[in-house]
Sequence to fold (820 residues):
Amino acid sequence: MTLLEAILLTVITASTPLLIAAIGELVAERAGVLNLGVEGMMIMGAAAGIAVAITTGSSAAGVAAAILAGMALAAIFALLVLGLATNQVAAGLALAIFGLGLSGVVGAPFVGVPREGIGKIAVPWLSEIPFLGPVLFRQDPFVYASFALVIGVAWFLGRTRAGLVLRACGESAAAAHALGFKVLRIRFLALLFGGACAGLAGAYLSLVLTPFWTSGMTSGRGWIALAIVVFASWLPWRAVAGAYLFGGVTILQLHAQGAGVPVPPQAMAALPYVITILALVLIMRARGGGSAAPAALGTPFVPDR
Amino acid sequence: MPSGSARILSAETPLLEARRLTRRFGALVANDAIDLAVRAGEAHALLGENGAGKSTLVKMLYGLLQPDAGQVLWRGAPAALPDPRAARALGVGMVFQHFSLFDAMSVAENVALALDVPEPLPRVAERLAAVSSAYGLPLEPAREVWRLSVGERQRVEIVRCLMQDPRLIILDEPTSVLTPQEAEGLFGTLDRLRAEGRAVLYISHKLEEVRRLCEAATILRGGKVVAACDPRAESAASLARMMVGAEVGAARRADRGDAGPVRLSVHALSLPPDEPHGIGLHDVSLDLRAGEVLGIAGVAGNGQDALFAALSGERAAPAADRIILDGAAVGREDISARRRRGGAFVPEERLGHAAAPAFRLSENALLAGHATEGFAPGGLVRRSRLLGFVDRVTAAFDVRKGPRDPEARALSGGNLQKFVVGREILRGPRLLVVCQPTWGVDAGAAQVIRQAILDLARGGAAVLVISQDLDELLEITDRIAVIFHGRLSAATPTGWTTREEIGLLMGGAATAEAT
Fold:
């Protein structure tokens, strides 16, 4: 395996959890709900995933538990912002803090317990292609899942009636309600999908990337996923670009540090965040200051029955 | 659908009938035992002032609200309307007053969303083209809604409603945002719909329009039916009397001599739009004399906001000499500096722009008058002065409120409007710029406000009225100019022009030579 192949492989593994979490949040935001608690849902997924995987010995059960944990937290958030119409920013921040705290409790018995990570799957034939094969088609199932999610969500939002209705709820809840759509139910389902994706992204961290539990192991990836949604201007394919930009810079700065580039390591470690902020600013400027955000994003909706 | 109905209809059975329909919101009875009958092929007007209960009633007929008591009959049989879907399945369609369109989506997507039986988008676009050409409502299916004019948006709403093949079409104040010519086009479409045997339930404030269009009317006041009549046999004045329950006079114009010297002068003012889909100003010039009321007509969204922002100082002009007030170049000055020079400004949106909703009236008075009225000498607020000012506005403009100093949002729209206009007029300004002075205000309050504007001008102030209400402008202005796509036409004396001429300018005709 060449160095280039190795770098590309690590870029993919660094980008995949960001992409999965971002695509889930993207769907929730297109329905008009801003869930800032991605970090909390993600780390609960990581904790529940490793806990169940170690207890049962089954990776599949771990993944399922991670998804359910993310959805459970999303359901709590939905109860607050949809059922009680509380402020979405405040509730989202609370959810992030709550998830970080609770995950520490759930994960405590499993600190430092080593575990075999989920292996990679080689796609027959395609993985034999020189260079591209090992990079693209000898990956773990999460990588394939992330691209299946992007394709699925892009198709759903752009081509299906249900996706159109979901976008309508994000553009104007009152108008969608006036047409007779169940805005709160649609937003609830979108939030659950976002929670499931965040949980799955968490499982990737604790079951594949670093297959053991340490508290706070998401280390801000949930927040980056939120930034990627804005970066992507709420379009699924651009989320791929955003996730891989951030993941790519993360890995490249590691290699640069390894190669002895004379820059303080702290500055290097900050580079992905700086690059992401720069890219966001440049995109906003190029768009002339306007926003591509769903018009009703973050606005609570209370049907007047 | 009519074919599905086995019931034999006598000519007398109404298509839709409401019997003793009642709806309460807390202590307020919005609809109190309303009776209404609409026959097939009939244009039926629903009249009433703001807050009379018209919107509540039609929301119940469309399944958006549930009645507390009473029932709805469709072709003589009781009908349950748990949601709009059920109403549409019966054959009730609704065109909303505030457009319920999704700006970021295409026309076809907007229409597809409203179809209860899902259809693939290309099919929707095809059917849409067919329906829109059949009814003379031209539309491009692939265009995004934010690119459309207000009139075109309304066409989308109507076509969307017609795609369901409704037997009863509810229109909520459809002409309030249209030019006279666009309104004529709409009437043509409605005549055609009635000829096909469809009924129209028509909500409007415009009584002449109702008299021309409708053969039956139900009049609401305070949530009750006060009269049912044939509007063709009534006069506009008698209809207004039934709506308000009292005589409504027109504002009295005083005979004035020649207007005084030029007080406000705008030269070749251009401003870029302040949002991606907005409209800026292009080369706008005007002169406004002391003692004169100048009207700016135009359909909403043609640059009125930018013009108001530039005149008030919310947005600075590109150069100071673009705006001259009493000989001083004020284009770069902010709103407080212009107020100190005798300017007074009333924006269009009363709650959120003219007044902070959660602030008390006294605090809102402070926001507008801190620079000029000595409310806060040395930076300390004098509550007694503020309350005294609020009391003076209340007395002079008959602002009806419970407590002495309530929060702005606790006032009804008409009373808050009287307060925000009165707040400026009572300062005795030399220049008043007012946007939509009587929008959504009932007839009595509107008359108070218009009279105050005329009296202010008679006292020697210069007044600029930006309004979409052409009748209002024709009533109170001395000269009228029209704004279209950020360009302002030359002002003509109000007596020399006609509704048709202004309407053409509002629709964009002849703007080339006007600039």
